[in-house]
Amino acid sequence: MKILHTSDWHLGHLLYNYDRSEEQQDFLCQLARIVAQEQPDVMVVSGDVFHYSSPSATAQRMYTEAILDIHQACPEMEIVLTAGNHDSSSKLEVDRKLWKHFSVHVVGKVEGADLGKHIIPIKDKGFVVAVPHVYPQNFPLIEENTPREERCCVFFQHLLNKVKEENAAGLPVVLMAHLAITGSDSTGHDEPIGGMDFTPITALGEGYDYLALGHIHCPQDIKDNTRHARYSGTPLPVSFDEQYPHSITLVEIDKQGATPVIRTVPIHNPKPLIIFPSKPTPFEEVLKELEGFDSDLPAYLQINVLVKDFLAPDCNERISQVLKDKRCRFCHIKMTWEQATICEQLPRLSLQEMKEISPTEIAKLYYQEKFGKEMDDELCTLFNEALALTQMDKL
Ligand SMILES: [Mn+2]
């Protein structure tokens, strides 16, 4: 079985309010060309098809037309799409029945009553077990009295047991999931408040030949002695932190139990996300260097500024002025302080120590760190007055 594995398209994503349909459309065309050339048996999209749970009409049209084009590029190929945490699981399923006519299987929701929808036979080649994103507390109850924290594990193993019954011929099995696996590299990833939930790979059960993962944007193989798992990563960067090559993954599995042969096909981004300059640089120098920036490159720019005391209030306009005849787009300024700030210093204090010193002491520490001298009496008095006012508010 030959599998094209991709995920995290984030269609409709706006980067600092800039519309990205052009490069997203470009990626989808590249994908259709890869499909035409490779003729896979199945294409799996492991979640985060859209960036917003209510995608714009443009994003939805782009999706529909692209899936039809991809289907045309290889009519024999099955397509399996699952919902990620960014997608609306029910909206993705709206056209579920319609898509079946084009060999497209959309799995948005997990419902305890219909487990059959997660198991998709790929002609006489193999099986795909498609699991969309599910919050750990929301896995359905399969066996009576299963504690909540074990329901994920029971659910995955139940599906894999079910596929085993159907798979008398011993064909390869691909499992799809959209979650963060313990031990995966999530550097630069947007973490939700309260941190990311990590699931050990063992919780996803046994009985598959390849685990096609989505959610983590950095492409990577998951190291495990007995299992073969991979994040295909984003085909296009979603943030400036994704400074690594982007690709889709092709997997070939001869037979059940065989080691999958994995390779990647790079995706070219016509509008790269560039951190400029590569190292934090004082603002006036940045402006000079920007003058020499390639006028024809339609890149998005994060401006990397080294700040001594403060940034002038007109710095955004001055950058825009320098870039006005160029094709690149200014997104934002990333500031790096020349001196370590209190944020880097204070973690040395434990929570208990923080509680024991007064707000004025913390302010003095901050001032000392930031400006390299002691806070003067006048500033101390002002600070105490402001503090007294906020405390009166609390009463
Ligand atoms: Mn994602």
Tell me about this structure.
By secondary structure, the chain is of the alpha/beta class. It folds into 3 domains: 2-266, Metallo-dependent phosphatases (Purple Acid Phosphatase, chain A, domain 2); 273-337; 346-394, no CATH class. Helix content is 30%, strand content 23%. The protein has helices at residues 21-38, 57-73, 89-92, 96-100, 151-166, 283-291, 315-323, 342-345, 351-356, 359-371, 377-394, and strands spanning 2-6, 14-15, 18-19, 42-46, 78-82, 104-107, 119-122, 126-130, 173-178, 180-181, 198-199, 210-214, 220-222, 229-231, 247-252, 261-266, 273-282, 300-307, 329-337. The strands form 5 sheets. It has a 6-stranded mixed β-sheet. A 6-stranded mixed β-sheet has the order 7-8-9-12-14-13, with helices on one face. Helix 5 links the parallel strand 8 (126-130) and strand 9. The longest helix has 18 residues, at 21-38. Bound molecules: manganese (II) ion. Manganese (II) ion binds next to loops.
